[in-house]
């Protein structure tokens, strides 16, 4: 590619001005890496890889999948039979977007945004498609002594962002924390791993049943709770006591809830 602004063609070839002195370190098309980053997406939720190219001129931007060195798009044209891949570009911006609808975990990998210069230049990005995992500690069944505190701990992992909400149900009915029964509360700690504790104080027989933790951005998980009155099933005799509660954790959370209610 010939650059007609080069000093060698305008009669001043005897004067050399290094690009670094003139602040011209980026001549011709170049990537804005601050806006062309790795992406983490949820399984089934549309993913977008953004490539920002400055000073593109009349060059073409293409997207290549490194796994099989497959040309996915060139300009706004798609070159794959997989209709989930779409090239999106607004003429008023410098952004070239590769949109992947209904991404699956197998779509994870390196994708390259390439500009058709001579030779071509490219910028690689990594797409990570994850499926959040919901777990209720101690499940699938818990055995609780009547009068003790039910402490259900729901953990959400591998989510690009904390779930905006976590819904708890008992026998498919949403739990009302302000019900006349009283003593029911939830404590949620959001982060890379989000934890939600459901506390039901002074457990009684009607509190038995199926409890479900349903994060807004992950699959729900259920646990079957049995409230016992002097009964000792085999599950409790063979380590079930550990599965039914985490006594120290439950006690601490019960104290916190009691103090909050004061």
Quick tags:
262 residues; mainly beta; Immunoglobulin-like; six-stranded mixed beta sheet; 11% helix; 40% strand; disordered N terminus; Ig-like_dom_sf; Defective proboscis extension response; Ig_sub
What does it look like?
With 262 residues, the protein is mainly β. The chain has two domains: 30-130, Sandwich (Immunoglobulin-like), CATH 2.60.40; 133-228, Immunoglobulins (Immunoglobulin-like), CATH 2.60.40. Helix content is 11%, strand content 40%. The protein has three helices and 19 strands. The chain has helices spanning 19-22, 234-244, 247-261; strands at residues 30-31, 39-42, 47-54, 61-65, 70-74, 77-78, 85-89, 95-100, 109-115, 121-130, 133-136, 141-145, 150-157, 166-170, 173-174, 184-189, 194-200, 209-215, 221-228. The strands form four sheets. A six-stranded mixed β-sheet has the order 2-10-9-4-5-6, with no helix packed on it. Strands 12-19-18-14-15 form a five-stranded mixed β-sheet. The longest helix is centred in the C-terminal third of the chain and has 15 residues, at 247-261. The N and C termini lie far apart (76 Å).
């Amino acid at each position: 590619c010939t650059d007609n602004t080069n000093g060698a063609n305008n009669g001043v070839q005897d004067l050399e001005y290094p690009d670094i002195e003139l602040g011209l370190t980026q001549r011709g098309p170049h990537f804005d890496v601050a806006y062309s980053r790795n992406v983490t997406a949820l399984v089934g939720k549309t993913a977008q890889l953004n490539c920002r190219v400055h000073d593109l001129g009349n060059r073409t931007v293409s997207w290549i999948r490194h796994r099989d060195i497959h040309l996915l798009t060139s300009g706004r044209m798609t070159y794959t039979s997989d209709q989930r891949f779409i090239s999106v570009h607004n003429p008023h911006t410098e952004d070239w977007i590769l949109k992947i609808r209904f991404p699956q975990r197998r779509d994870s990998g390196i994708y390259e945004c390439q500009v058709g210069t001579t030779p071509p230049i490219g910028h690689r990005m990594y797409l990570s498609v994850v499926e959040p995992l919901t777990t209720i500690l101690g499940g699938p069944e818990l055995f609780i002594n009547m009068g003790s505190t039910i402490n259900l701990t729901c953990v959400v992992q591998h989510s690009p962002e904390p779930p905006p909400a976590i819904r708890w149900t008992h026998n498919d009915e949403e739990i009302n924390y302000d019900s006349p029964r009283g003593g029911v509360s939830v404590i949620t700690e959001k982060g890379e791993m989000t934890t939600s504790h459901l506390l039901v104080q002074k457990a009684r027989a009607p509190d038995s049943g199926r409890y479900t933790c349903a994060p807004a951005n992950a699959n729900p998980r259920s646990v079957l709770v049995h409230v016992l009155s002097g009964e000792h099933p085999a599950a409790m005799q063979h380590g079930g006591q550990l599965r039914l509660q985490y006594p120290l954790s439950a006690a601490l959370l019960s104290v916190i809830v009691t103090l909050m209610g004061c």
